[in-house]
Design brief:
This protein is an all-alpha fold. The protein is built from 5 helices and no strands. 20% of the residues are buried. GO terms for molecular function: electron transfer activity; heme binding; metal ion binding. Keywords: Heme, Iron, Metal-binding. InterPro entries: Cyt_c-like_dom, Cyt_c-like_dom_sf, Thiosulf_SoxX. This is Sulfur oxidation c-type cytochrome SoxX.
Amino acid sequence: MLSGIFLIPRQVYAAMSVASAADIAAGRHLAFSRKAGNCIACHQIKGAVMAGDIAQPLQPPFPDRNRLFAQIWDARQNYGSNTIMPPYGANHLLTRKQIHQIMDFLYSLK
């Protein structure tokens, strides 16, 4: 029998947590908002009107949460300076919480 305190890395805990309906709704708002995430400027997303076609559609399956977070935080890490995707986190365009809300919304898509 195990007893004691166990430490779980933050990334693992984030992957284990279940998204709330409020976070999913907030993520949808951010992804569709022209004043916030504006994901639909470049990506097609289920339910979006006038979605862009510059980048791949945002539809399941998605990479693991850590990889998707890194992509939204700063796509230059994967694609170098030639990417047109803004570094949302690195440039303080979105907070960590907002990025996680967008991810919660994307992972809720079926």
